[in-house]
Each structure stands twice: as C-alpha cells, then as structure tokens.
C-alpha cells in the first residue's frame, strides 16, 4: 500500500513540476513555486529608487518644456519640436519605470491577464441579444418606478407646502 502511495505521490509531484514549467514560460520559478506579480513588486533595490526618481524628474521636465524651453533653445519655438521632445521624455520615463521591479511586475500582471482573457467564455449572439433586451426592460421598469415615486413625493410635499 505504501509503495503505491509513494508511486502516486511521485507521479503527482512530477505532474506539478511539468505543469509549473508550462505555466511559467520565462517567469522565474523558485523552489517549485511561481513568482507572482505581487512578490516581484514587493522587492526593491537602490536601482528602483533611482529609476523612479529619474522618471519623476523627466515627467516634471516634460510638463515644463512647452513653457520654458523656447526661451533657451531656438528650435523649440516650433510646436512640433516641442511635441516631439515631450513625447520622447514621456517614452523615456515609461522605459525607466519598465526597468524597475514594479514595472516587471506590471508586465507579469499583463501576461497573466492575457492568459485569463483566453480562458473566458464569451456569450454568443443569441445570449447577448437576450441579455440586452432583459437589461433594457429592467431599466425601463426601474425608471418608471423612480418617476412614479418622484411624482408621488412632489404631490405629497405639495400638500404640506401649499
């Protein structure tokens, strides 16, 4: 009996390892467990702090480009040059944020969300049509009730006010 149980436990642990390997696809696996986005986001380093500060400074600079840069740099008098600089600064800030642990966690979260979206069973045309009509009817019924209550309270208050 114990030999069969040991055999089943071995097969189960092998199956979990294979399934974990299939699910992780490039994600870090430590001690048999997948690293979640929350675990990645909670880790921090000096590099993260520097990148967050750099991104904040660049975004603040992007807000000031339109007002101050034309006074210091002649080509910035052109609107399209300023727009290009603002977009470039915004993209640079996003790249800085993407290189942080929180940025990696966000990318992991987006990948997990894409996997979950593939698992969703979307309603068919008939179900959508049916639920849409049910919703419209319920909105009409509730709207009618609110209108009747509004008229009743207007009449009731009108009696006391005169």
TrEMBL record:
Keyword Iron-sulfur (UniProt): no
Pfam families for this protein: SecE
Primary localisation category: membrane
Transmembrane segments: 49-68, 80-100
Keyword terms: Cell membrane, Membrane, Protein transport, Translocation, Transmembrane, Transmembrane helix, Transport
Record Gene3D superfamilies: Preprotein translocase secy subunit
Highest taxon in the source lineage: Bacteria
InterPro entries in UniProt: SecE_bac, SecE_sf, Translocase_SecE/Sec61-g
Location of the protein in the cell: Membrane
Keyword Iron-sulfur included in the entry's annotation: no
Family annotation (HAMAP family): SecE (MF_00422)
Role summary: Essential subunit of the Sec protein translocation channel SecYEG. Clamps together the 2 halves of SecY. May contact the channel plug during translocation.
Quaternary structure annotation from Swiss-Prot or TrEMBL: Component of the Sec protein translocase complex. Heterotrimer consisting of SecY, SecE and SecG subunits. The heterotrimers can form oligomers, although 1 heterotrimer is thought to be able to translocate proteins. Interacts with the ribosome. Interacts with SecDF, and other proteins may be involved. Interacts with SecA.
Family: Belongs to the SecE/SEC61-gamma family.
Stated name of the protein: Protein translocase subunit SecE
UniProt organism field: Psychrobacter glacincola
């Amino acid at each position: 009996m114990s030999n069969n149980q040991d055999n089943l436990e071995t097969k189960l642990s092998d199956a979990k390892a294979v399934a974990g390997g299939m699910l992780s696809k490039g994600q870090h696996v430590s001690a048999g467990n997948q690293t979640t986005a929350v675990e990645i986001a909670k880790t921090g380093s000096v590099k993260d702090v520097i990148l967050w500060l750099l991104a904040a400074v660049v975004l603040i600079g992007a807000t000031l480009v339109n007002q101050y840069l034309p006074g210091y740099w002649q080509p910035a008098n052109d609107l399209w040059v300023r727009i290009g600089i603002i977009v470039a600064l915004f993209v640079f800030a996003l790249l800085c944020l993407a290189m942080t642990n929180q940025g990696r966690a966000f990318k992991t979260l987006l990948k997990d969300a894409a996997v979950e979206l593939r698992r969703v069973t979307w309603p068919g045309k008939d179900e959508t049509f049916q639920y849409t009509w049910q919703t419209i009817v319920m909105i009409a019924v509730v709207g009618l009730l609110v209108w009747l209550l509004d008229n009743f309270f207007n009449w009731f208050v009108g009696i006391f006010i005169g």
